[in-house]
């Protein structure tokens, strides 16, 4: 059975489709630290991971910085104050193992990921994808390791990388998103518990897609993962990220940091399907998704693209960005953000043009339904050194129903006369004319809506790896089922 | 015909939009195997009638019935009407960006004939043959539906959809307007392939031109929301020669501007 079929089967099983099908809880014994945040907690996290002193110090420095910072409130989102002392910063399944290759994983955990469509054992593995699986605070398995190691590719959990590839981690960690970059990045730098590390050496084209699947399970813990991807000269990697969490009445914090580094002629494609629990129809529960993602096109002709399908989380605060430093480097951002119920999404990108002849493309599709608020916030900055820089931006918003909102906040700053920037934006209600036309051919209202919305998102979905794009389309269909009619 | 279920019958149909009455008691019957033409001056309600038959929510039906296959379809959603075998060729076909012609046609055929009854391979082969018949470029099958199509291409796409969905009753809403003579010939060729003993057709038009290609057995003239006159093919020639004024006088209505 092909992977695509598996997903189709999973996604269309009517029993699972009813509400949020990933909302179940796994019963596992956990190894937890007490709630709250102070230097002792940070030292304890670092000790649990057997980290070297430099890492512990790095965390403490970030924590001290964080204490001087204030939570940002410029985004178009509204939520009660977060009590950072009421969060558990470390929770791990006792029998998780140490981020090994998938052998000997707790059967209870293996079952969880089976249910989520992420088989961990060798037999059922997706042939074209290597997976790192993060459950609450730790990585529980990374597949395909030996195969990748033969080509010099390092793909493992961040904890393991700190122990085994300390020099590499030390060289690049925080070099794109410094610990003091923003409030959440500082918090993450202090308490991050796991995440993925990928290193693709010079001239190597990674033969499979690398993937991390993030799962929040524990009730009162936050998830703070840290992902670092380095593509050396001429290297290529496609990386996929997926996320789910149980359905709970309290809000849980997810504050991740992702750093991408592309050296000369390297290319990194980063794809996300984010389906955190979004809360119920009254806005109770759901994940606060406060994430800093940034790529650095360090070398000439390097290329970084972010593709995201954001369909979950109660609140999203996320702006995957690219610093275009290398001459002729290319940054891309393709985004579909869907909100329904009382979800609030403030998402977009920043393209910072530094090198000459740098190019960036931004395609953003926002869809708001029910009582949600969906905002695009983007910045294109062209510095005086970025001669002949080019940017093309297209952000379209679609409204379904009359109680939702779409906002667009684009900023364009150009400091050289040789740059060309284009910006297109549209906002439209899902067109009655289109609906009537499609329905007049026998297609029912729900399918017609889903067809029109999928068509609207196509320019973004086509950038996703194939199986993932199928999953994104199905997910969107499921979400629309509850928002139409 | 009393005692038998009518195939397609419009009875005393009244409809309005934004509180403006447009249809004021339309009566019209189409039997299987018949081709009817509906003509009339601008603003007489021709397009409204086509849209009301299909169930466009922009219009509100205030009275009357439309019976199709023995059921009052005014109670049904547009998609139910289509699945029952009703088809409307739009005057202004709508673009659906991002959805390919192939995907759209397959989705529509699945809805009409039941999922599982339409096998992708043979289906696409048939679509390609039909496109060939309508002298359409093969590349259209992968293009977004009606997106960036010329007027003539859109109209051919309507006929392609009709050939694909095999309705038992089709309403063509000014399919001929804006077509050059070649496109008109091709579109008519497609329509004529549908014509047969089990197929009813209502051609709404402004011009007699299309009626040289699609020969109606009946002509109705719509005026001020009512059928003012009905007749056979000879009436087409009368309208062509003398326009609508004499009908209006006979019908006893004020001249509309």
Structural class of chain B: alpha/beta
Poorly predicted spans of chain B? none
The percent range for helix content of chain A is 10-25%
Total strands of chain A:
23
| CATH fold category name of the domain at 8-91 and 169-251 in chain B | Rossmann fold
What's the mean pLDDT score of chain B?
92
Number of helical regions of chain A: 12
How would you characterize the overall build of this protein?
The complex is a heterodimer of chains A (485) and B (257). Chain A is α/β, with parallel strands linked by helices. Helix content of chain A is 24%, strand content 34%. Chain A has helices spanning 3-12, 14-17, 39-48, 53-67, 107-115, 145-149, 158-164, 166-172, 183-191, 432-439, 445-461, 466-481; strands spanning 30-32, 91-93, 129-135, 138-142, 154-157, 196-200, 209-215, 226-231, 236-244, 251-254, 257-262, 267-274, 286-297, 303-310, 315-318, 321-324, 330-339, 344-353, 359-369, 373-382, 390-400, 405-414, 420-429. In chain A, the strands form three sheets. In chain A, strands 5, 6, 8, 10, 11, 13, 15, 16, 18, 20 and 22 form an eleven-stranded mixed β-sheet that branches. In chain A, strand 3 and strand 4 form a beta hairpin. In chain A, helix 1 runs parallel beside helix 12 (466-481) and helix 11 packs antiparallel against helix 12 (466-481). The longest helix of chain A has 17 residues, at 445-461. In chain B, a hairpin with a 2-residue loop joins strand 1 (8-17) and strand 2 (20-30). Chain B is an alpha/beta fold and 257 residues long. Chain B has a domain at 8-91 and 169-251: P-loop containing nucleotide triphosphate hydrolases (Rossmann fold). Chain B has helices at residues 46-54, 78-83, 101-113, 120-133, 151-165, 181-194, 233-242, 245-251, and strands at 8-17, 20-30, 35-39, 60-68, 71-72, 86-89, 96-100, 144-145, 169-173, 200-204, 218-223, 226-231. Chain B has a six-stranded mixed β-sheet with strand order 6-9-10-3-11-12, with helices on both faces. In chain B, helix 5 packs parallel to helix 6. The A-B interface holds A 431-434, 436-445, 447-448, 451-452, 454-459 and B 54-58, 77-79, 81-83, 87-88, 90, 93-99, 104, 107-108, 111-112, 144, 161, 165.
């Amino acid at each position: 059975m092909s992977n695509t079929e598996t997903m189709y089967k999973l996604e269309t099983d009517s029993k699972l489709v009813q509400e949020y099908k990933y909302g179940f809880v796994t019963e596992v014994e956990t190894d937890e630290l007490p709630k709250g945040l102070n230097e002792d907690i940070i030292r304890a996290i670092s000790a649990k991971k057997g980290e070297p002193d430099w890492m512990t110090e790095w965390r403490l420095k970030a924590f001290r910085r964080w204490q001087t910072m204030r939570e940002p409130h410029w985004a178009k989102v509204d939520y009660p104050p977060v009590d950072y002392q009421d969060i558990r910063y470390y929770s791990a399944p006792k029998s998780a193992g140490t981020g090994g290759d998938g052998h000997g994983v707790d059967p209870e955990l293996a079952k969880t990921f089976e249910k989520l469509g992420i088989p961990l054992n060798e037999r059922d593995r997706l042939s074209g994808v290597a997976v790192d699986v993060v459950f609450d605070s730790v990585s529980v398995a990374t597949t395909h390791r030996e195969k990748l190691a033969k080509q010099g590719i390092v793909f493992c959990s961040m904890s393991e990388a700190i122990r085994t590839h300390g020099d590499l981690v030390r060289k690049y960690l925080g070099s794109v998103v410094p610990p003091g970059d923003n409030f959440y990045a500082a918090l993450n730098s202090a308490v991050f518990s796991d995440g993925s590390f990928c290193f693709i050496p010079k001239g190597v084209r990674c033969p499979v897609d690398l993937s991390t699947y993030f799962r929040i399970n524990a009730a009162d813990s936050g998830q703070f993962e840290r992902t670092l991807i380095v593509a050396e000269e001429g290297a290529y990697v496609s990386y996929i990220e997926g996320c789910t969490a149980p359905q709970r009445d309290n809000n849980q914090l997810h504050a991740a940091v992702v750093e991408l580094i592309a050296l000369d002629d390297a290319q990194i494609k980063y794809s996300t399907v984010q389906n955190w629990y979004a809360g119920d129809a009254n806005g109770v529960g759901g994940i606060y998704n406060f994430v800093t993602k940034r790529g650095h096109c360090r070398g000439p002709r390097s290329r970084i693209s972010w593709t995201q399908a954001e369909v979950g989380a109660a609140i999203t605060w996320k702006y995957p960005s690219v610093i275009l430093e290398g001459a002729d480097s290319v940054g891309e951002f393709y985004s579909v953000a869907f909100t329904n119920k009382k979800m609030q999404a403030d998402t977009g990108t920043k393209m910072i043009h530094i090198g000459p002849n740098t190019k960036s493309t931004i395609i953003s599709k926002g869809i708001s339904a029910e009582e949600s608020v969906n905002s695009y916030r983007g910045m294109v900055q062209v510095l005086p050194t970025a001669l002949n820089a080019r940017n093309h931006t297209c952000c379209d918003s679609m409204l379904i129903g009359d109680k939702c909102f779409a906002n667009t906040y684009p900023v364009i700053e150009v400091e050289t006369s040789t740059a060309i920037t284009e910006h297109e934006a549209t906002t439209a209600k899902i067109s009655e004319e289109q609906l009537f036309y499609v329905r007049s051919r026998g297609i029912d209202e729900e399918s017609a809506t889903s067809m029109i919305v999928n068509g609207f998102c196509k320019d973004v979905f086509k950038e996703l790896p194939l199986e993932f794009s199928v999953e994104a389309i199905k997910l969107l269909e499921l979400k629309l089922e509850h928002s139409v009619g | 015909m009393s005692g038998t279920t009518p195939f397609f019958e419009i009875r005393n149909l009244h409809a309005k939009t934004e509180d403006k009455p447009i249809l004021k008691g339309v009566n019209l019957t189409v039997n299987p195997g018949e081709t009817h033409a509906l003509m009339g001056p601008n603003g007489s309600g021709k397009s409204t009638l086509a849209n009301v038959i299909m169930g466009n929510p922009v219009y509100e039906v205030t009275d009357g019935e439309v019976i199709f296959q023995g059921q009052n379809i005014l109670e049904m959603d547009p998609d139910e009407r289509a699945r029952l075998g009703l088809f409307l060729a739009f005057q202004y076909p709508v673009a659906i960006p991002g959805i390919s012609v192939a995907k759209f046609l397959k989705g529509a055929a699945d809805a009409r004939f039941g999922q599982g009854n339409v096998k992708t391979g043979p289906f696409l082969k048939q679509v390609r043959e039909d496109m060939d018949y309508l002298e359409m470029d093969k590349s259209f099958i992968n293009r977004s539906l009606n997106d960036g199509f010329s007027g003539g291409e859109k109209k051919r796409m309507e006929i392609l959809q009709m050939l694909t969905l095999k309705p038992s009753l089709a309403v063509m809403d000014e399919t001929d307007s804006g077509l050059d003579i070649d496109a008109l010939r091709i579109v008519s060729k497609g329509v004529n392939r549908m014509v047969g003993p089990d197929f009813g057709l209502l051609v709404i038009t402004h011009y007699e031109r299309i009626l040289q290609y699609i020969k109606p057995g009946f002509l109705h003239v719509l005026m001020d929301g009512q059928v003012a006159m009905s007749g056979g093919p000879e009436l087409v020639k009368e309208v062509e020669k003398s326009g609508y004024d004499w009908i209006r006088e006979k019908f006893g209505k004020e001249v509309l501007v």
